[in-house]
Amino acid sequence: MPIIPVSDDVSLAYETFGDPGDPPVLLVMGFGAQMIGWHEDFCRALAAGGRYVIRYDNRDCGLSTSFDDHPVDVGAFVAAVGSGDLPAALAMAPYRLADMADDGLGLLTALGIDRAHVVGASMGGMIAQTMALSHPGRVLTLTSMMSSTGEQEYGRPTPEAQAVVSAPRPADRAGHIAAAERELVWASRRYGDAAVLRDLAARGYDRAHHPAGLGRQLAAMILSGSRAEALRGLRVPTLVIHGLDDTLIDPSGGRRTAELVPGAELLLLPDMGHDRPRQLWPRLIDALLAHTG
Asked: What are the residue numbers of the active site?
């Protein structure tokens, strides 16, 4: 697995699929999720449609650079935000979504790619939006999947989903894998599969188990704030995809994103939650190929 420097202090693990001569598609993963969350078969199917597909680990996840010299006490951070002590919260967080966006763009630069189609899921959608807002000349198209705008009133999780995402998984391998089944709470009601969740958890644990990065990524999301006003001025062709079964980021987050971005296309998918079930891959891949064509 290649790991490449993208700035003075960050190196990213990445993998590519397809012909480098084809239009590049950068896949950006979400909160605490390694690049293997973009399943290899999904990447290969997208590449077979004539795209050069790049997936990578965000900072503080997988095999990319970790910021363990900046520990974040999640409880203290949430308390500071909740009490309105913004200076204390800011002091805890070593980076923002803008830095994570620069990482992805830095990866493209390191690979000799000037412009790419950018596809982000969940927190990855927030990062992808930030890429398009900060460097629109480098983003051919934007696809924001199961994501939101940073406005607190949109895309809110259900209490059940919030409880799952807030509860740390057990540290031991067996407990960590078993706890992955909790994520069925936000999966597709029709296609959600506990075995699939356990398999991904096992592969991720064995590849690079790094729970300490979650607090820093959470801080980056919360402190980066709303992108609403900036999205109103975005002129990058945008596709918004959201599953109607999503309970982790309510579909209102996708609807709001499409409402704000001029000319954005909105694709709401029945039977999709905060996941990408294999049964829906043909629909997702067709939509991505059409948007990036």
From this structure: 122, 246, 274
**pLDDT tens, 55-100?**
999 999 999 999 998 888 878 888 888 888 878 888 888 999 999 9
Residue 193 placed within a domain: no
Is the residue at 175 inside a domain?
Answer: no
Tell me the per-residue pLDDT of 226-256, one tens digit each, with 9 for 90 and over.
Answer: 999 999 999 999 999 999 999 999 999 999 9
CATH number at residue 135: 3.40.50.1820
**Averaged pLDDT for residues 206-212:** 93
Based on the structure, what is the number of domains in the chain?
A: 1
- The answer to whether position 191 is within a domain reads no
pLDDT above 90 (res 1): no
**Crossing angle, helix 281-291 and helix 40-48, to 10 degrees?**
40
Q: Is residue 256 part of a domain?
A: yes
List the domain range (segments joined by +) for residue 50.
3-156+211-291
Question: pLDDT of 264-286, one tens digit each?
Answer: 999 999 999 999 999 999 999 99
Give the alpha-carbon dihedral of 113, 114, 115, 116, to 10 degrees: 20
